[in-house]
């Protein structure tokens, strides 16, 4: 099998047969600056995806994409050569904060149509970005208004340094964010230098928490109603156009008779001293569209399942109310963030295929009230119950993404299978954010976000030798 893959890849790379790769799905319409260098990676083991490995294999990167993967590939002329024991996809933080300005992160008044992409800061956090890449995290989903009831549209960023905001944005609209049951007024606090200081606020009472869930559900139902109105208008408009066409055909057939009838009617009106009025037809009344609303447009897309909804909720009361309230929205794709007490609903979450982004951090005694029941074994307990588990850095501290692999190690130490943790940080996160066609695995045609390691991923003694992000070597053993 390995030799077959190598032979096919070698044939594709022969000079007489130039390689052409179909462009993968992208949410960006701009022409990105594409790196021109060719990178040739040799590895004892290439992890294509969780559970699928090729031994003694090579990876060729060109134009920001993975050109070929297989055994027996030849070194292209002029290529930069890199070697290591293992190669795998770069890690993804589906609940991060690195790359968004502090003011936007703590914004308390976003609406569903607020775009996190507009708050991206490519000039700040340079040292954090470098440290995060060294840790193997190449991509992060970030969010404005992370502590607000509605946080707007999240964006997915590639963390490679750049002078162009457009080059780091992989998806401008990868989710809608909402929170329920958080500490009242809970917002990230920063000092004058933009350093994260913690969260402020007071614990919300049970009635406030349930009321927040009700408002959230009402917002989503309003979006669904808006979608229904749009669809009804679309059908009514099509029916109207058809009726108009049929009436025009009918009038054209009887044009002579219609002309005589009209002239007769005009004459009679003139003789009687009345104003002549054209004959009205029911087809003349064009249906009115629903009033356009930016926020309802976004919520309608969420209700229709076009983009996922991520809701930060932790306690039993709000998770129960949330699952009950959203049950009627059959197309909506829910992702739960936090989920400190989500194990009470593990069976339901598994049956409804609702992923949970766990924050496996040692929070200590100063934790927020809603994380009272959170512990490092949460990811393992949910996974054992059949729930799709993702791992995130909490979405509040820009410095936390660099610790994500360490957090994953803590979750593994508390019972989570290491391969499950690896899946959560790669294709699991990519799939949840609708980016599985671009990142998350090592496959020809995908973006070249790769790690070259001296051992297996997520093993405490393993070191990352090289990081390739968007086809550029951003970490080497020397830096």
Summarize the structure.
This protein has 479 residues and is an alpha/beta fold. It has helices spanning 2-13, 102-105, 126-134, 165-168, 206-253, 255-271, 294-303, 316-325, 346-351, 378-384, 404-413, 418-425, 427-432; strands at residues 38-49, 52-62, 65-70, 80-89, 91-93, 137-142, 150-158, 169-179, 184-190, 196-202, 309-313, 334-338, 356-358, 389-391, 450-453, 464-469, 472-475.
Helix/strand order, N-terminal first: HEEEEEHHEEHEEEHHHEHEHEHEHHHEEE
Provide the CATH topology of the largest domain.
TIM Barrel
Average predicted confidence as pLDDT:
85
N-C termini distance: 37 Å
Uncertain residue ranges: 1-32
Assembly annotation: single chain
What structural class results from the helix and strand content?
alpha/beta
**What is the annotated CATH architecture of the largest domain?**
Alpha-Beta Barrel
Helix share of residues?
25-40%
Number of strands: 17
Radius of gyration: 28 Å
CATH class of the largest domain: Alpha Beta
How many DSSP helices? 13
Largest sheet: 8 strands, mixed
Question: How would you write the strand order of the largest sheet?
Answer: 5-6-7-8-11-12-13-14
**What's the structural domain tally?**
3
CATH level-4 homologous superfamily of the largest domain: Metal-dependent hydrolases
The general outline is globular
Q: Tell me the strand percentage band.
A: 15-25%
């Amino acid at each position: 099998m390995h030799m077959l893959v190598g032979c096919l890849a070698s044939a594709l790379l022969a000079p007489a047969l130039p390689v052409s790769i179909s462009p993968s799905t992208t949410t960006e319409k701009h022409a990105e600056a594409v790196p021109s260098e060719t990178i040739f990676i040799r590895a004892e083991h290439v992890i294509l995806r969780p559970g699928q490995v090729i031994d003694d294999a090579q990876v060729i990167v060109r134009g920001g994409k993975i050109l070929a993967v297989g055994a027996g590939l030849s070194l292209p002329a002029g290529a930069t050569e890199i070697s290591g024991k293992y190669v795998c996809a770069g890690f993804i933080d589906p609940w991060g904060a690195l790359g968004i300005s502090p003011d936007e992160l703590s914004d308390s008044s976003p609406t569903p149509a607020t775009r996190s992409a507009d708050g991206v800061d490519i000039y700040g956090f340079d040292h954090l970005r470098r440290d995060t890449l060294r840790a193997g995290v190449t991509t992060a989903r970030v969010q404005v208004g992370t502590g607000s009831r509605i946080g707007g549209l999240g964006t997915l960023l590639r963390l490679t340094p750049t002078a162009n905001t457009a080059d780091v944005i992989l998806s401008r609209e990868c989710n809608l964010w909402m929170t329920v049951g958080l500490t009242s007024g809970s917002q990230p606090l920063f000092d004058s230098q933009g350093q994260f200081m913690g969260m402020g606020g007071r614990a919300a009472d049970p009635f406030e928490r349930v009321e927040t869930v009700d408002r959230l559900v009402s917002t989503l139902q309003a979006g669904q109603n808006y979608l229904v109105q749009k669809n009804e208008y679309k059908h009514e408009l099509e029916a109207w156009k058809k009726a108009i066409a049929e009436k025009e055909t009918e009038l054209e057939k009887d044009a002579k008779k219609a002309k005589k009838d009209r002239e007769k009617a005009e004459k009679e009106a003139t003789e009687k001293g009345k104003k002549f009025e054209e004959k009205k037809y029911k087809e003349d009344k064009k249906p009115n569209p629903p009033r356009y609303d930016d926020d309802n447009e976004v919520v309608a897309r969420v209700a229709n399942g076009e983009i996922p909804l991520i809701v930060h909720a932790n306690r039993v009361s709000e998770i129960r109310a949330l699952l009950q309230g959203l049950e009627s929205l059959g197309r909506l794709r829910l992702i739960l963030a936090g989920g400190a007490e989500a194990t009470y609903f593990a069976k339901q979450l598994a049956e409804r295929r609702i992923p949970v982004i766990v924050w496996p951090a040692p929070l200590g005694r100063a934790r927020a009230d809603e994380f009272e029941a959170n512990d490092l074994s949460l990811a393992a307990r949910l996974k054992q119950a059949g729930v799709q588990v993702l791992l995130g850095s909490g979405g509040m501290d820009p410095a936390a993404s660099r610790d994500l692999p360490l957090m994953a190690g803590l979750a593994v130490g508390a019972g989570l299978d290491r391969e499950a943790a690896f899946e959560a940080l790669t294709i699991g996160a990519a799939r949840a954010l609708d980016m599985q066609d671009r990142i998350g695995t090592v496959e020809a045609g995908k973006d070249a976000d790769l790690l070259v390691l001296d051992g297996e991923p997520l093993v405490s003694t393993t070191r990352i030798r090289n990081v390739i992000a968007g086809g550029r070597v951003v970490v080497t053993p020397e830096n």
